[in-house]
Amino acid sequence: MDTISNILLLLVILLNFFLLGSSRLASCIRTIALQGGILSLLPVLAHGFSGHTLFLSTVAFLLKGIAIPYLLFRAIRQVHIRREIEPLIGYVPTLILGTLATAGSFIFSGRLPLIPEHSQSLFVPVGLATLATGFLMLISRRKAITQALGYLIFENGIFIFGMLLTEAMPLMVEAGVLLDLLVGVFVMAILMHQINREFSTMNTDNLTSLKE
Amino acid sequence: MENNLLAVLLLLPFCGSVLAFSLPSDRLRPWLLPLCGTLHLALTFLVIQGGRPLTTANGWLGVDPLSRLILLVISLLFCGCSFYALGYLRYRISWGNRTFVGCLLLFLSAMTLAAISRHLGILWVAVETTTVASAPLIYYNRNRLSIEATWKYLLLGSVGIALAMLGILFIAYAALAGNGHVSLQFDDILHGAASYSRPWLRAGFVFLLVGFGVKVGFAPLHTWKPDAYGEAPGLVGALLAGGLTSVAFLALLRTLQIMDAASEAVMAREAFLAMGLLSMAFAAVFVVRQPDFKRMLAYSSVEHMGILAIGISVGGVATFGAMLHLMNNALTKGVLFLAAGNIHRRFGSKKVDDVRGAITLLPFSATLFLLGFLAITGSPPFSPFISEFTILQGVFSGDHYVTGGLFLFFLAVIFIGMGSTVLSVVFGNPPEKKGDENYRETFATTGAPLIMLLIVLVLGVYLPDPVRHICADAAALLEVRP
Question: Has the ipTM of the complex gone over 0.90?
Answer without folding.
Answer: yes
